[in-house]
């Protein structure tokens, strides 16, 4: 399980170190940095697929994602005696992401390349990348250490090789080298699962009937909803699915029909003469059933991250969603990003760890966290 998440210089996350639990709820006002935290977690996952550079390019490149404020905010600025002024940076420009748990820790440091004739001069490079054993980084616990274009891996005896191995500046060592420790960590990160805003408009993929196959993991766009629900009914926790539907829609049932291999969802509500297909469901009902399929997956991931799952749901459905999330947290570590106070309160009452973000002179901070409250975290130096 992940115990600590650290982010530095990513958008408003100038210097953030957060504790994580089995069920962590991240909340805060609009603009407090919730979405940036969600994106930072996705960037970490992209590194295991060697996609961090491309992901940053989709956000406008590294310069567009870096913290835009000063390196430090002095007392005069905080007291109002002096305005915030632009100053020349004295530290290397870099975006740093990392996490740690009881078994492994991982950190990466992305920076700009040295000026040159290449047209790819905005591609961020891996300046430092480390994997260590245990929850805290130190030179003694390092298993893999990458500095720029070279990589060192400890051998079976715990010794470092006499000669480092070369590695591409824009390639993550997680995806480039088949060392056992890296393979284990890479596959764990690749198994992380993210769900954002499911489409529920009239042409949403979840509303269409499709050829069905066993689907233990709901696709990110919900296109295989019917197959995913049927997989839970046959190979997963069918009773939990029935309970989740009943909690939200008393006396309602979900059935899946098949014609020539094409699966179609049938939703029977109390009082209706016939069941409704996915194409006929309201946005909120369809979205809730998508969350049911995602959270009751027969193949739970090591980490599941949900971004604003309350979107398009009627307030009366939020207690049922909270119960569904709480049940899922018994099988997998969950991070829920939400601005819905009813959902946050419902999850908080079940013992979830609540992290409230706020802004301090433009930088995202954890409300109430002092220096001594931060989890132990040390960044590898360049």
TrEMBL record:
Keywords assigned by UniProt?
A: DNA damage, SOS response
Is DNA damage one of the keywords UniProt gives this record?
A: yes
Q: Which residues form the ATPase AAA-type core domain?
A: 23-344
InterPro entries listed in its UniProt record: ATPase_AAA_core, P-loop_NTPase, RecF-like
Q: Which GO terms describe its biological process?
A: DNA synthesis involved in DNA repair; double-strand break repair; SOS response
Q: Does the keyword Secreted apply?
A: no
What molecular functions are annotated in GO for this chain? ATP binding; ATP hydrolysis activity
Q: Which Gene3D superfamilies match?
A: P-loop containing nucleotide triphosphate hydrolases
Q: Which domain of life is it from?
A: Bacteria
Sorted alphabetically, which PANTHER family does this protein's record hold?
DNA REPLICATION AND REPAIR PROTEIN RECF, SLR1056 PROTEIN
Q: Please state what the protein is called.
A: AAA family ATPase
**Could you tell me which species this protein originates from?**
Amycolatopsis carbonis
